[in-house]
Amino acid sequence: MEQNGNYKMALTTAKKELVEKKQRACFQNARIKTYEIVIIVNKAWKHSFSRVEYNKKAFAVGGLCPLTRNLLDHPEVAAAKVQSSDNEARVKVQLLHLTISKVWLLR
Question: In Å, how far are 31, 32, 41, 49, 60 from 38, measured between CA atoms?
């Protein structure tokens, strides 16, 4: 969803800033070193996946908010309910994961 796009843009920006900083410091080789990847990822993460309120809104708009229970009303889930009280919760969880996977694949 949007988080992945924000992450990629922030990652590109963080890489560019690091290389430009090295160039301004007159480094002979302004390439990104392997140990600097963690610094870049941490910086990009703060601008994408760690934005909790924004991400909650994005999930709600996409219809993936678990509090709406929309996925549990899906015909496949409703048809597969088991009458046994022992198996009912387990089957619902398995079908919910299956349905979520299908939703992600269709996007």
Answer: 15, 11, 5, 15, 30
Mean pLDDT value across residues 94-100: 63
- Domain boundaries defined on the chain: 1-62, 66-107
48 contact partners, CB below 8 Å, separation of at least 6: 3, 4, 6, 7, 10
What SS3 class is residue 11?
helix
CA 35 to chain centre: 24
Q: Say what the pTM is.
A: 0.51
The set of residues, in sequence order, having a beta carbon less than 8 Å from that of 6 and lying 6+ positions away, is 47, 48, 51
Tokens 């994005």, residue?
A: 58
